[in-house]
């Protein structure tokens, strides 16, 4: 009896202390998070429920990598089931052999033992993925592996505790306790008191590992166990392609964009603490895969390290507990010293894409320095300008992320600060921006020549909204469609198809402005808002109700971003969506055979941003003679062409060209045509085919061009 009281008091003291440390570690991180900009966490909870259930309980994102996904599924549900087992084990130790008063307790015991075995198998497989298969995206070393030891320790101590209990209390072997019965058979020679001692040693071992894990969780990437579900629940409810609106009229604002870590919102900061460092984002990133310095995982991890260190300095509260175990941990601060490491060692790369050189650069450049965290600059000290400008805003990272992190909004916030506060951006981007400011197009061609392409539209009449006020669709031609000679061919093919189908359409002509997508992705919110306001004014003036465009970037910004600035009740379509409708309704008849093997490249702004995957494929399938094939990376996981996020206008000097990598992926399918539905992709594919020396065997075509060939037979 006395032992039980001592045991209970010890249990209460140790458990209470562990929970206190856990609470302290969580609270301190919460206090750092509060340094961020306020965020309305209460918005539209009901709409979040479905994605929350799918991603947290269905582990939908994790299952994109089936093997790792199943492993994580076992761990996730295993841990939920084992919570009841842990409770039962505590009752056993405190009561000296009792248990939870559950019906069918033996079946409960069997479920626990089988779950323990499944979790052990999952831990073994996780170790194999990291150290056997050596997946490049997974970090190796003691820190990333410590959780595997924790979990294995917990599982083994459960089984040993149960086995010692059987010997101590004289329970016969049972088929409903196969593992503990088996181990107990090996311990049968022990006396009752020795078995009891063994029970309590293992019971305490289990408890101590469990409590140590509890304290460790918020101080490590395993904080995601708590933060990931919260992060998924609190995800921005806006459409994915919509960047946040900057209030440029706010006279009280001292700065725009993110120039310090505190300039991020509290939700963006929650992303930092939700990251589990799984590397799925980096694995999919076209920049990381082609030898640029940017790695979306490291972007998040570096921001987290910086926030923790700077938060600790500002609040004077150390993130590390218990303090006696972390003497000296608060000295120095992480920072990038890019000059200390040469560029990404791309010459070591293998295959079409390879993330390892970028990972090596990240690992070598992010180190603790003899510096104060409050003195480390966000731009330059934590994230370099090279990293910031390397992003194509393709959202492949976000689409892969199992904890709902968003990378693009952070990168654009960093760009906004560089552009709006410091006037810094790469020369090519600067030129494009100035040209858009002056002439409304990135080349600086005359704004009065925006409708110049109509002079060469053959016998198709292309009316302006003034000439044809009774139009049904406004054809928003976009800068590429209006000025770029190659894209003009797509524009002409499209208007020819519209005329053939009898669609009443009109253009704004020289009253059309650049959509603003490029300035916005480059961080120039001011220019974007001006262009957006001018376009909306024109739409209102001419009573526009439906818009169609051949440019997925314009499509995305018109459809998802203009509503933030007052565009209401206007349907926005991509040309493939409208053409698909016209073919289905019989208004367009693809009747001539087009003997081509077509591999379709998904535009990020059409696919991942707007979920338009089927319309272009339907059109290709409708063309007689076309054999549609797919690349390994297609649809949601399609790799970017390298032109998004304003990259179209910048030099690509390091690593391998993204469009070359994408073309090599396309050429693996032996196509005669690389099909696309975006003028930026078309340009990149055409350049890529030449770079790959494959222009003799494959050509790049827009889906509308192929359809026109089939409809008109020329
Ligand atoms: S948006 Fe694309 S390029 Fe940018 S970090 Fe994510 S995956 Fe990489
Ligand atoms: S940001 Fe998301 S995908 Fe990237 S490492 Fe973190 S959890 Fe994984």
Estimated structural class: mainly alpha
Distance between the ends: 96 Å
Main sheet? 4 strands, parallel
Shape: elongated
Mean pLDDT: 94
Number of strands: 10
Our Rg estimate from Cα atoms comes to: 30 Å
What is the tally of helical segments? 28
Beta-strand share of residues: 5-15%
Low-confidence segments, ≥5 residues, pLDDT <50?
none
Ligand inventory: iron/sulfur cluster
Helix % is 40-55%
- Order the strands across the largest sheet as they lie in space: 4-3-5-6
How would you describe the overall organization of this protein?
The protein has 714 residues and is mainly α. The chain is 52% helix and 5% strand. It is built from 28 helices and ten strands. Strands 4-3-5-6 form a four-stranded parallel beta sheet. The protein has a four-stranded parallel beta sheet with strand order 8-7-9-10, with helices on both faces. Helix 23 links the parallel strand 5 and strand 6. Helix 1 packs across helix 12, helix 5 crosses helix 6 and helix 8 crosses helix 9. The protein is elongated and about 100 Å long. The mean pLDDT is 94. One iron/sulfur cluster binds next to helix 10 and helix 12.
């Amino acid at each position: 009896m006395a032992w039980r009281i001592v045991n209970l008091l010890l249990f209460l003291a140790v458990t209470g202390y562990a929970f206190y440390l856990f609470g302290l570690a969580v609270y301190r991180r919460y206090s750092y998070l509060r340094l961020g900009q306020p965020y309305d966490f209460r918005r539209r909870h009901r709409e979040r429920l479905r994605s929350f259930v799918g991603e947290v309980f269905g582990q939908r994102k994790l299952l994109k990598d089936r093997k790792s996904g199943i492993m994580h599924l076992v761990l996730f549900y295993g841990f939920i089931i084992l919570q009841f087992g842990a409770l039962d084990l505590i009752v056993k130790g405190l009561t000296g052999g009792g248990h939870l008063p559950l019906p069918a307790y033996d079946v409960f015991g069997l479920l626990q033992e089988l779950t323990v075995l499944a979790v052990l198998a999952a831990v073994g497989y996780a170790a194999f993925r990291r150290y056997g298969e050596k997946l490049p995206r997974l970090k190796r070393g003691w820190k990333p592996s410590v959780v595997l030891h924790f979990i294995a320790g917990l599982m083994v101590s459960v089984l040993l505790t149960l086995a010692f209990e059987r010997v101590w209390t004289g329970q016969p072997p049972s088929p409903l306790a196969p593992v503990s019965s088996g181990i107990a058979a090996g311990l049968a020679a022990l006396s009752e008191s020795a078995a009891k001692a063994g029970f309590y040693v293992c019971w305490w071992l289990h408890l101590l590992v469990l409590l140590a894990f509890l304290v460790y969780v918020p101080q490590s990437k395993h904080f995601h166990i708590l933060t990931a579900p919260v992060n998924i629940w609190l995800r921005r409810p806006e459409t994915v392609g919509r960047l946040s609106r900057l209030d440029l009229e706010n006279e009280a604002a001292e700065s725009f964009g993110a120039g310090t870590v505190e300039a991020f919102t509290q939700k963006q900061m929650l992303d930092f603490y939700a990251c589990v460092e799984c590397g799925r984002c980096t694995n999919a990133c076209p920049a990381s895969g082609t030898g640029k310095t940017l790695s979306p995982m490291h972007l998040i991890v570096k921001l987290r390290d910086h926030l923790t260190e700077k938060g600790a300095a500002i609040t004077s509260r150390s993130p590390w507990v218990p303090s006696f175990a972390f003497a000296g941990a608060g000295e120095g601060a992480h920072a990038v010293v890019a000059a200390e490491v040469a560029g990404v060692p791309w010459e070591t790369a293998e295959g079409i894409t390879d993330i390892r050189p970028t990972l090596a650069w990240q690992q070598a450049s992010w180190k603790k320095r003899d510096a104060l965290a409050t003195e480390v600059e966000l731009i330059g000290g934590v994230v370099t300008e090279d990293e910031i400008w390397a992003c194509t805003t393709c959202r492949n990272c976000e689409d892969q992320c199992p904890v709902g992190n968003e990378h693009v909004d952070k990168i654009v916030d960093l760009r906004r600060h560089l552009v709006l506060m410091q006037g810094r951006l790469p020369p090519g981007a600067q030129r494009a921006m100035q040209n858009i400011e002056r002439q409304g197009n990135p080349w600086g061609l005359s704004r009065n020549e925006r409708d110049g392409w109509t002079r060469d539209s053959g016998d198709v009449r292309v009316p302006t909204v003034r000439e044809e006020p009774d139009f049904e669709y406004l054809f928003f031609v976009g800068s590429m469609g209006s000025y770029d000679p190659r894209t003009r061919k797509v524009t002409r093919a499209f208007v020819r198809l519209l005329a053939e189908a009898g669609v009443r359409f009109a253009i704004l002509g020289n009253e059309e402005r650049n959509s603003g997508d490029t300035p916005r992705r480059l961080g120039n919110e001011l220019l974007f808002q001006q262009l957006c306001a001018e376009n909306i004014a024109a739409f209102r003036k001419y009573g526009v109700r439906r818009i169609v465009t051949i440019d997925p970037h314009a499509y995305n910004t018109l459809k998802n971003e203009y509503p933030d600035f007052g565009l209401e009740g206007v349907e926005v379509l991509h040309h493939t969506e409208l053409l698909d409708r016209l073919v289905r309704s019989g208004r367009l008849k693809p009747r001539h055979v087009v003997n081509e093997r077509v591999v379709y490249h998904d535009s990020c702004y059409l696919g991942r941003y707007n979920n338009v995957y089927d319309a272009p494929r339907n059109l290709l399938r409708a063309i007689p003679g076309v054999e549609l094939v797919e690349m390994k990376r297609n649809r949601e996981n399609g790799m970017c062409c390298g032109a998004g996020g304003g990259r179209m206008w910048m030099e690509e000097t390091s690593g391998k060209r993204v469009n070359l990598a994408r073309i090599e992926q396309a050429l693996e399918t032996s196509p005669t045509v690389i099909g696309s539905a975006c003028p930026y992709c078309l340009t990149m594919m055409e350049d890529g085919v030449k770079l790959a020396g494959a222009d003799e065997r494959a050509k790049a075509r827009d889906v509308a061009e192929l359809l026109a060939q089939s409809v008109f037979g020329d």
